[in-house]
Amino acid sequence: MADWQSLDPEAAREAEKYDNPIPSRELILQHLSERGSPAAREQLVEEFGLSSEEDIEALRRRLRAMERDGQLIYTRRGTYAPVDKLDLVCGRISGHRDGFGFLIPDDGSDDLFLSPAQMRLVFDGDRALARVAGLDRRGRREGAIVEVISRAHETIVGRYQEESGIGFVMADNPKIQQEVLVTPGRSMDAKPGQFVEIKITHWPTQRFQPQGDVVEVIGNYMAPGMEIDVALRSFDIPHVWPEAVKREASKLKPEVEEKDKQKRVDLRHLPFVTIDGEDARDFDDAVYCEKLSNWKLFSGGFRLYVAIADVSHYVKVGSALDQEAEVRGTSVYFPERVVPMLPEELSNGLCSLNPHVDRLAMVCEITLSKSGKMTDYQFYEAVIHSHARLTYNKVSSMLEQPSSADGKRLVDEYRDVLPHLKQLHALYKVLLKARHTRGAIDFETQETRIVFGAERKIAAIKPTERNDAHKLIEECMLCANVATARFLQDHDLPGLYRVHDGPPLERQEKLRAFLGELGLTLHKGKEGPTPKDYQALLEQIQGRPDFHVIQTVMLRSLSQAVYSPDNNGHFGLNYEAYAHFTSPIRRYPDLLIHRAIRSVIRSRRETSHVRREGATSMPKARIYPYDEAALEQLGEQCSMTERRADEATRDVVNWLKCEFMKDRVGETFPGVITAVTGFGLFVELTDIYVEGLVHVTAMPGDYYHFDPLHHRLSGERSGRSFRLGDSVEVRVMRVDLDERKIDFELISGGSKSSGRDSGSEENRPPRKDGRTKKGGDKAAGSRKEEVSPEVRKSRELKKALLSDAKSGGAKKPKRGSAKPKASGKASDKPDGGASRKRKAKP
């Protein structure tokens, strides 16, 4: 096949990308499928007619890449075969805290269930190939691991323990259940109970547990700040600056150089201000607004200036700063600690729009009509001078409570910028009305902040209030982001959009069924419900006692927003196109968008949507060298880092809340049911904002049946039901910091239902003898005798759990602690098999 290029469907693409092209992935897969059997690399070299050492090495690298990506498998005979020809499924491993797991296929097909025995070969997050081994007892496809393609974790974070002289580490991540044995002499003198990071040197097999070397002793259990140190490593969040990044950052001057201010639009005369939280340190955005004159017909309205830190001026494509920012993806905001995307020389210094200093900015200038409709926009490089660093609370006092003592003091202090703040407030009211007309969804969610006392111990958990200043800045940022998306479309630029798809059909159906039971409907057009339909329903249920319940179910029906080069609009905000422009200091997608805009500003392209002040034209490849394929990968990377940051901060907050509740075991609190499952109720404590689980065994003696349609657990005998949003009273039974779990016992609450909703006779499951109760005393007595042992067992379990919690949980071995000796019976071991001895490899 010396003329393979004539057969290659992607020959033109390969020729454009490489000086010496080789067969594309598509041709290799096609050829292996058509030849009828797997082939060794040497066979492929001969069949494709490759002769030069350079081509042969390039083919070797391509085959390895295809193997890594799950397109090919390298067989035990030393040959390559297409995965789909071997009926194998490629996907990502998702572990479960109970030991089993799933392989989530790349092709979107149904997940493969993985038994605990199979999960001992892999870790959560690994990519693997599996074959379908059959169906489990629930009818799910069950998988058997064939090959691990790539490992998600080179290191594991957990607590070091010793048993019988052998050290081991149990991962802090509950989805990883394997104990990692420590190579003898490689523990770095860690003490039992300390958190450590261990590097895996031997991966798990059917016969051996994973093994590794301790590379860092992180610190003592319960030490202040340990929760963040553990989360950074558990979630693989980069937090140490590479030396190359440090060198580049050290070369930056502390202030903007005069030469950099040249050939930019000079806006230093405009009274820009920044408005942020009390503890903010990096200031991405500054705003200024002026009212347009009314002397012409159809005139009037506003001109809004949104100045954003010009990060792309300093962070060049391909630099060490850029590469590290891409890997980090986003700044991570933990309680009272930030892990920034960029070094502090930039994030808090040269790029931050600090007050009373000159700063470089990328400005979005927007013209809006009197009704808040965008009529024009321009982007340009500028130099600005922030006139004040304001906070949300200060601005709120000046605009909403100017007659208060605090308001009067602030009005006098900021009298120079107050008229412009009033213009911003006037614009906000117009934009808010336009938002309602557009039909964006406005969910009322409650955010909280943690207040620390001495030694980083929680003193209180308080709700945060959103005032007009928060909403004012939000509307200004929305305007700039919409203009950005329009800029990408108007100039046919590939870029990352912020995409929020509509609710999946399955969730829509569940939501409609839930609403139907309450006598409510969600309007459905030809393509499903619109954001306006959601907002109309929210307005309809305002004032209802079950408002928060309904809102929660509506919120859970929506998709998660992602970054993608394919613009599918933003459902929640009801925008046809939306992109992130306003936070390049802390979000990598915004930095990419700035580069896209600059590629047009620094070109000779004719457009009315940019303003140039004589800056030198630059090749697009130097500013914005991204095609659709590259942006697809970057979108996935940025979406992943965003989820990773969310999961890490959630884990830290859960740790802190568990720590907060450890001294409150045995106390009772009022709460609200926030979720209902088949195994119990999740309850959030009123005024404390801590959530825990009321397991079904910690509920009043009865058999409880889960009704997913009504989000309810109903007692079979008592008829008492517990619904999402019900008020209850609970007692704190147990706090498990290792698992980040809090267990409650139900004291009171729920409601006595009637008819079909109460779990009445016609809705109950049939008795074992097939008969139904007819109401006689004898039947009642018989039923009582059946139930009593279970009720007693439940009560005994509750008492044991409460007693255990009060005594510090001494009776229950913690994850990662030394286990009690097994009885030696096969039934005591996982899967009824032989015990797996701890035996470290040398």
Automatic annotation (TrEMBL):
Entry superkingdom: Bacteria
GO annotations of cellular component type: cytosol
Predominant location category: cytoplasm
UniProt key word Hydrolase: yes
Nuclease is among the record's keywords: yes
Residue segments, region Disordered: 748-842
Catalytic activity as recorded in UniProt: Exonucleolytic cleavage in the 3'- to 5'-direction to yield nucleoside 5'-phosphates
Keyword terms, alphabetized: Cytoplasm, Exonuclease, Hydrolase, Nuclease, RNA-binding
Subcellular location field: Cytoplasm
Gene Ontology molecular function, alphabetical: exoribonuclease II activity; RNA binding
Enzyme category, top tier: hydrolase
EC number: 3.1.13.1
Biased composition (Basic and acidic residues): 754-801
Single biological process term from Gene Ontology: mRNA catabolic process
Role description: 3'-5' exoribonuclease that releases 5'-nucleoside monophosphates and is involved in maturation of structured RNAs.
Family: Belongs to the RNR ribonuclease family. RNase R subfamily.
Name of the protein: Ribonuclease R
Organism: Stutzerimonas zhaodongensis
Gene of this entry: rnr
